Each structure stands twice: as C-alpha cells, then as structure tokens.
Amino acid sequence: MDNRLYDYSPIVGREPIRWPGGARVAFYVGLNIEHYRIDRPSTSTFEGTRDLAPDPLNYGWRDYGPRVGVWRQIESLDRHGMRASVLLNSDAGERYPEIVEAGRARNWAWLAHGKNNSTFQADMSVEEERAYLTEVIGSIEKTTGQRPRGWMGPALTETFETPRLLAELGLDYVLDWTSDDQPYRLNVPGMLSVPYSVELNDIGLFVSKGLTGPDFVRIVKDQLDRLYEDSADSGRVMALALHPFVTGQPFRAKYLDQALEYVADHPGVWLTTSDEIADHYARTTASGPGGASSEDAS
C-alpha cells in the first residue's frame, strides 16, 4: 500500500521558511503529561514484571511523574523562559488538576494525546474513533479551557482516518509522523504535520538506550548545532520530547537544566510552542511539501 497521507518531498529546493525575528531554529518542548491504567502493561523500566496486574515496580515508576517529576521540570522550564507544548491525556487532565492549573498560569499549549497511554486507537472503526476523538478533545477543552489544535496519539498511534477525523473536529496539525525537520501539509485539507522526535526523546535515550545525563546534554547540543547549520537558507524545527518520570528524576534534573540552558542561550533560536510553529507555517507558506496547499484548504 502506498502512503497517501503525504507526498514525498526532499528538503532541498523547498520554499524557504522564515521564522519570526530572523530565528533559524524553532524550538519547542513536548512535555508528555500522561495517565496509565494500573491493570495494563505499558512503558517499563524493568521488563520482568511488566505483564503483572498490578505491577507496582513499573506503575510506581511512571506515577512518579505527575506526583514529583513534573514539578522539577517546571522549575527548569521557568528558569529558561520556556513554555511547554503539553501532550495531554484527557484522563490526566481530569486526574491531575494541579498540573493543569500550573500550565494555565504559564500559558502552555495543550495538545490532545488520547484518553490515556494504555489505550491505542489503531484498530478502531471510523465510528468508534470519531466518538473517541470527540470525547478526548471535549474533555481536554473542558479541563484546560482551551480547545486543542494539535494531536499526538498515545505511542504515536493513528488509524488511516485519524487526520481526517481530527480536521472535522477543528484541529490543525499532528505530531505523529516524525519524518521531517520542517512542517509540511498533509493530503487532508487544513492539516499539517509538525516535527516531533522519537530520537531526541528521553524515554528512548535513557530507558531504551541506557545513556547517561552527560550523553543527553551532548546529544541536545549536537542536534541544535547541526539544525542551526542546516538552517542557513530555510528554518528548521527542533522538538525535545520529555516525560516527567524520566527527566524528572533527581539524578537527571541537572542535565535537563544544562540542556535547556544551552538551547536558551543559543543564537538564532525561537523558543516557542508547536501551536505557534503550526500557525506561523500555515500563515506564511503559500504551499509546502507533503500535500494540500492553504488555497486547497479554503
């Protein structure tokens, strides 16, 4: 089966992207605020108990995030003048009102991230998925006071109908398709793909690969330096994916802070949100790689 969601477009030769203020790299933090069901296996630090119900070892590790870890991350984001782009499970929004209150006070961007991180919609029928998306988006709008504009599925899962259904519900972009360093238009009128990262992601780096804090800082620096170099003629996007139960751990906190400090002090970086990236790209780029132009969507 061919990929009909977006077209192939090599990054060379595209219409140049110009970020505000002459910035060359648009940087955002994708902060995952998630809820996990206690009776299902999920992301684990120790595979030996992951299929048990309950699984205190792994569930407690994940639950450290909203209880403790996120508050360290908030301190670091505040220190460096960064607003989070929050990938919010609707269950998390309902269960952790203090986190939502902290985000609203800081003008965070809120993206829909499914109901919880134990439920994937990949096998849903169109009717089931439409009802599911409607419920999730409505819940997040109620808890945050802001209707989400962006979507990222739990574990970046979608069906072939997800972008179309999201467009019907008034959303503008998805993060699930991590195939580019620039936004691009999908073959769904009005829908964009905004870059996210499974490589520059604290779960992958620390949990899957077992890297250290200094490794993390070096990787963030290398990513930004190369994207800045690449962006001489056209802007790039750098996403940093964070989870409170990973980089919110005490022994990693100083390394997250060092990485954010490097980004904040780097010349030519627009500290922004995924909402603002999508909005700027849609307004200033007449056509783009991947699919329907803004004129097609009107």
Quick take:
The chain is an alpha/beta fold and 298 residues long.
Structure description:
The chain has 298 residues and is an alpha/beta fold. Helices cover 41% and strands 12% of the residues. The chain is built from ten helices and nine strands. Strands 1, 2, 3, 8 and 9 form a five-stranded parallel β-sheet that branches. It has a four-stranded mixed β-sheet with strand order 4-5-7-6, with helices on both faces. β4, α5 and β5 form a beta-alpha-beta unit. The protein is globular.
Identify the notable features of this structure and list them briefly:
12% strand, alpha/beta, globular, TIM Barrel, 298 residues, four-stranded mixed sheet, five-stranded parallel sheet, disordered C terminus, 10 helices
Q: What is the percent of helical residues?
A: 40-55%
CATH C-level class: Alpha Beta
CATH arch. level architecture: Alpha-Beta Barrel
Order of helices and strands: EHEHHEHEHEEEHHEHEHH
Tally the beta strands.
9
Radius of gyration over C-alpha positions, nearest whole angstrom: 19 Å
Number of domains: 1
CATH topology: TIM Barrel
List the helices and strands and how they pair.
Elements: E1 25-33, H1 56-79, E2 84-88, H2 90-95, H3 97-105, E3 109-112, H4 126-144, E4 150-151, H5 162-168, E5 173-174, E6 184-185, E7 192-193, H6 202-208, H7 213-230, E8 236-242, H8 250-265, E9 269-271, H9 274-284, H10 294-297
Parallel strand pairs: 1-2, 1-8, 1-9, 2-3, 4-5, 5-7
Antiparallel strand pairs: 6-7
Helix pairs in contact: 1-8, 7-8
